Fold this protein.
Amino acid sequence: MNKDLNYTVQSQIPPVGFKAKLLDKLFLGMNMSEYARSLVTPFNLIAAAIIAASIPIFFMRYTQGLAAVVHGTNEYPWSLLLSWGIFAGEPLFAAGFIVATAYYLLGMKPYRVLVRLAVLGGMLGYIFAASYLIIDLGRPWRIYYPMLINFGPSSVLFVVAWHVGLYCTVQLLEFSPSILEWIGSKRIHRWATSVTVALIIGGVILSTVHQSALGSMYLLTPGKLHPLWYSSHLPLLFFSSAVYAAMAFAILLGFVAVRYFREQCDEEFLTNIPSLILGLGKAAALSMYVYFALKLLAIAQDNRWEFLMTPFGYWYLVELLGFVAAPMLLFTIGVKLEKLNLITFASIYAIAGIVLNRVNVNLIAYNWYLPDHFKHITPPWTEIIMIMAMVTLHILVMRWILNRFPVMRELPEYKGTH
Amino acid sequence: MSEKGIGNIDDGTDKRSPANASGTSSGITRRNFLSLSALAACAGLGISTKAHARPEFKGWPDSYGMLVDFNLCVGCRSCEKACNEENKLPAPKKPFDDDKVFEELRQPSEEAYTIVNRYNNTKNPSAPLYRKIQCNHCLEPACATACPIRAYTKTPEGAVIYNEDLCFGCRYCVVACPFNIPGYSYQSALEPKIMKCTFCYPRINKKQLPACAEACPSGALTFGKRADLIKLARKRIMDNKEKYIDYIYGENEVGGTSWLYLSGVPFEQLGFAANLPKKPLIELTEGYLSMVPVIFTTFPAIFAALYAATRYREKQAKKEIDDKQPKEDSHE
């Protein structure tokens, strides 16, 4: 993926002066024309095409309203854009808090090399989730209203808004040592690392609350969400699935880093990742068993078994057996046989399962009894282009950062400070 | 103005209702037990009455409601027309006297705060049934519970009103509404907003009837104190057991709604949601919301303890290594 960034042309003479230093860092040691030429790759061309195609659509959204680009109706107020961008994305972006907890609070030392990558993945994910929200909100310039203008503490969304906002800040602070090292500020760096543990505990709280709050939002819809998906355990189901989703995402991040960003990884990172993937795979398998049991518990508690033998019941079984039980078993086998590729595959599979679950709750099982249900929840092509553009942009920004910031490596002058 | 009163309870229903014409409804006591409410209506609004603290809250005392009697509705859509004019909504695609609109089942939207749908009458196929749909003005509205900016207010008069100036357009209220009522102006790029029935709150404040109730020629709509309307509804059921099913929709659904409904056929046949809980929807989230402060109080201690345990083990391990080393090594 980063074959476009050719390191052999790195200039030998260290740059002098602030501007030269900055340009050196931004262009990865190349001069501007070298850098521009290095960007012309098939991947980048496809990415550019997708983003170019989305520009008129985004323009339409802000000139002609949401109706012109997404499927929003009074019966289905939230479309795939929001379902994908926020509900399906956020469980994955709990990766930062899961790995940071393992290292800082539980003392699992080897996870240190993965902390920064996971925190970066989480932080960037949250920033993108907020971007999806800005696209979808009717009046995005009022996004701070729940924080400053008027409080609706009876609303679960109020809880979500506050926690996502605070958690973004916490993650930025958690990641700040990386940025400070890139800039080269040692004094602020020392201060930033000294408050880490407090930040991590804060992150655990904020993450726990808001992952469960996303599920709690649907507690208000007993008449609208299909009885198989509606449960008083929704907060717990959303939280526990976010735990394994986060582990699966951390595995994926580690895999992508080693596979596509090998030049950016130091020896310690490369030697530790296989055992970390194994450890995360084990933890993911365990969390999935817990989640699977909770799902059954939710059905049993409300005695919803009879619904399983209906069309929506079959669909529920596809989700539960095909996208929870199956990756769960693959994780188990992968860990037993120590097959890293199988664990990585199981991670992608489990992530697909999370996406399916959230889309089910948001769209497929929501207002399922209305006439023309499936016609209504099918997104228009403009919405698909917008989602593709956001995903592309997400990958490009992640790549830009990974190629510059010390994420999978430790700068020698900062060794032992985190 | 005070003589005319705010309720159409006594002057609206009797003279025009088909039920009365056929002699099945006894109107004798209706005036008696509801006349007080019409008088009290004007005076009552100014008095602030402390509501009980939740969870005992059963709605504002003395709030208004509307009783819709589907046995009396003739499907003339006068209410739709009056609503459209009162709220200055765009002209409908098909005129209000065009019966073709009944070919599909509609929902209220940002263009029509109330609509009337037609349903087959299984009892008497030659006389189709009509149902008016609009915001039910829940006693504890899910839209207000859902709103993170508290843009919704349940007024003591009974209306659930919405303040456009606070709304950022998340549409969680639309997700939460158990009746799929709030409409949202998706076409607007810069000023999208929720649009729904206001129970003609400005008119109620001016001691006028809601526009739909004033326009209704058949007596299907009765405006009055909700408590009185429930008594009236019971009486109608008691007096005409063969005409009404023994159920007041809205009395208890999602904790009760200001709009109440009487029907001659089971409510499911008119498209009413039958799967709604009887308790206010806010009670479904309050357990979770009360856990949030608990997490904030207990998690720091729990995780600090975990951290301390980790550090302790590390120190112990280091000490053991140090102890095993010769003395001169441990001192630097």
Summary: The longest helix of chain A spans residues 267-301. Chain A touches chain B through 61 residues (CB under 8 Å). Residues 123 and 168 of chain A are 6 Å apart (CA to CA).
